[in-house]
Amino acid sequence: MSNNETVDRPVNFIRNIINDDLANHKHEQVHTRFPPEPNGYLHIGHAKSICLNFGLAEDYKGLCNLRFDDTNPAKEDMEYVDSIKQDVQWLGFQWAGDICYSSNYFDQFYAYATELIEKGLAYVCFLNSEESREYRGSLKEPGKDSPCRDTSVEENLALFSKMKNGEFKEGECVLRAKIDMASSFMCMRDPTLYRVRFETHHQTGDKWCIYPMYDFAHCISDAIEHITHSLCTLEFQDNRRLYDWVLDHLDDFSKPDRPHQYEFSRLNLEYTVMSKRKLHQLVDDKLVEGWNDPRMPTISGMRRRGYTPASIRDFAERIGISKVDSMTEMGILEAAVRDDLNKVAPRSMAVLDPIKLVIENYESEPEVLMAPIHPQNEEMGKREILFGREVYIDRADFTEVAPNGKFMRLALDKEVRLRNAYVIKGVRAEYDADGNVTTVYCTYDPDTHGKNPADGRKVKGVIHFVEASKAIPAEFRLYDRLFTVENPAKEDDFESVINPESLTIKNGFVEPGLLNSEPEKAYQFEREGYFCRDNQSVDKQIYNRTVALRDTWSAK
RNA sequence: AGGGCUGUAGCCAAGCGGUAAGGCAUCUGGUUUUGAUCCAGUGUACCGCAGGUUCGAAUCCUGCCAGCCCUGCCA
Question: Nearest nucleotide, C1' to the C-alpha of A462?
């Protein structure tokens, strides 16, 4: 690659392979693909693969296809193809040309299967699934040949044609590759290439009643699309032998520039699950609101929660690509969002757990004050906030007697600054029957807006507030990890280890300026965290907390 | 004697025979009208273990140990 055109990315073993392939002119242009099966929603693990495949294509000025690996109509649905397209685009990537479907190649797969039969490399097998399993042998013992293994080419051709024409029932027979029943790779013990399924396919309707298996379809799809580097996760390492076998035995593809498969480790994130099966189960069992529940590791859930495409791409870059079976800390993801949001999120003030604060020496009507939208970025401008005799502050920001000299919040007879406004001093507090503070009374120093007290006294603490008369009531949804253990997938019953406090709802107030806040748009509620308006309840004032601010204090 | 992979600081991850990058986390200072940000500093990593080759090994060889994956007509 030419130096000054490329982005400075962390190196990884796949980039090393590509660099070699380009240097040796094995390929002239990089062509990758992201090949999801449309049988569920995309999650952060898919995002890792998307960023890898599309990122490689971008950096090497190559191409990346979006291909739906839709060879099993029984599990697939258009709902999923639509959401997958949306998620890929939302992440900021554009596929090369039209969307591809493995099902586009059904005619070609059929022809290539026929080629294998003609070469004596595939046969129709009538063993049922139990028999087939017995014949396969075990990890330590070789399998034995199917009685159908010696059927003549002519007979096999006729049989396969009958399969295609619907003359066999589901499960009655399959097309198998004739490889080696004693191979140490289980996937090479005469693997199934085609099975009979009387299913309506979301793309091809009822045209077919036989469908190719992944191992047969995937390598050929890659080859048809001229994919150069076929990247997948570690569990397909053994399957690579079959990938190579199929392409090497087909005249169209047994060439040096055919695609090759390379495997990297999938993403494991602490305190969540990543398998589609488990995610499906959470949705089906109504343990979450849906695929787009903000606690889900799905792209749509994270989008609703307030994660940005940039933060997810940055996360993918931070964790890198390797073959190590690893467990990534949530902290890396959180650091990535905070980094992005800190730069772009307008600041605002919201009180999540309000108590009333009355400023006894403030007699006039509420006044308008100007506050920076971003304290480190003047170009973002200023916003109007209200200040008046009655404001809301957070319950956690007041205590009658400061516990120690390091306490930076409001206490009786102690001064603190109301952010973007004046310095106040606690006078007295009122409590309800349960002993909870209801109202705090204070006085303010009118000469402290935008400046420190003239007499030089230092006021260290700053707390946020919302003026009461015009405050907009709002609901705040605070999210915590979905599970209580680092690796819930290891649990016998992962649902038993769900965090009962993964969602906490608070009712408080936001600034009037947020009346028409946009769903999914990030705000920093100062001292509280990053929030965005919920995209599923736009008529209400509901804010999802994306992530709290980094907290180096409360740990004590 | 099944096979395929992987083992570098708490986590992620460079390194590919010349004497251990970087990020996250941690901790310490400084700045600060967010206990945030920002800035500066902060890690004896017996490079899974044990041998061997070499002037020199995380890097090459041998043996061992640990973890993950493979017996769907799923992908």
Answer: B33
Strand B atom within 7 Å of A290 CB: no
Integer CA distances (angstroms), A190 to A81, A174, A186, A480, A552, in order: 32, 11, 9, 48, 59
- Strand A415-418 versus strand A462-463 pairing type: parallel
Protein CB footprint (7 Å) on chain B nucleotides: 2-8, 10-16, 21-27, 33-38, 67-75
Q: Which of residues 473-492 of A touch strand B (CB under 7 A)?
A: none
Separation in Å, CA A550 to CA A416, A481, A528: 22, 16, 10
Give percent of chain A above pLDDT 70. 98
Q: How far apart are CA A314 and CA A299, in angstroms?
A: 14
* H or E stretch covering A472: strand A472-479
Residue A23 burial (10 A CB sphere; 0-12, 13-18, 19+):
exposed
A53: Cβ under 7 Å from strand B? no
**Does strand B come within 7 Å of the CB of A166?**
no
- Chain centroid to Cα A33, Å, comes to 18
Looking at domain A276-346+474-547, does it have CATH number 1.10.1160.10? yes
pLDDT at A256 over 60: yes
Nearest-10 Cα torsion for A251, A253, A254, A259: -170
Q: Where in chain A is the domain with CATH 2.40.240.10?
A: 352-464
Q: What percent of chain A is modeled with pLDDT above 90?
A: 95
- Provide the CA A408 to C1' B49 distance, Å, integer: 52
In the residue annotation, A255 being an active-site residue is answered as no
Q: Indicate if CB(A220) is under 7 A from strand B.
A: no
| ipTM exceeding the 0.90 mark | yes
* Backbone CA torsion sign across A236, A11, A92, A318: positive
Asked whether residue A142's C-beta has any atom of DNA/RNA strand B within 7 A, the reply is: no
Total residue count of chain A as it appears in this document = 556
pLDDT in tens, A465-479: 999 999 999 999 999
- pLDDT given for residue A479 in this prediction: 98
pLDDT band of residue A7 (cuts 50, 70, 90) is low
Provide CATH 1.10.1160.10 ranges for chain A: 276-346+474-547
- CATH architecture of residue range(s) A13-264: 3-Layer(aba) Sandwich (3.40)
- Active site (annotated) includes residue A75: no
Topology of the domain comprising A352-464: Ribosomal Protein L25; Chain P (2.40.240)
Q: What is the pTM of this model?
A: 0.96
- What is the tens place of the pLDDT at every residue in A347-373? 999 999 999 999 999 999 999 999 999
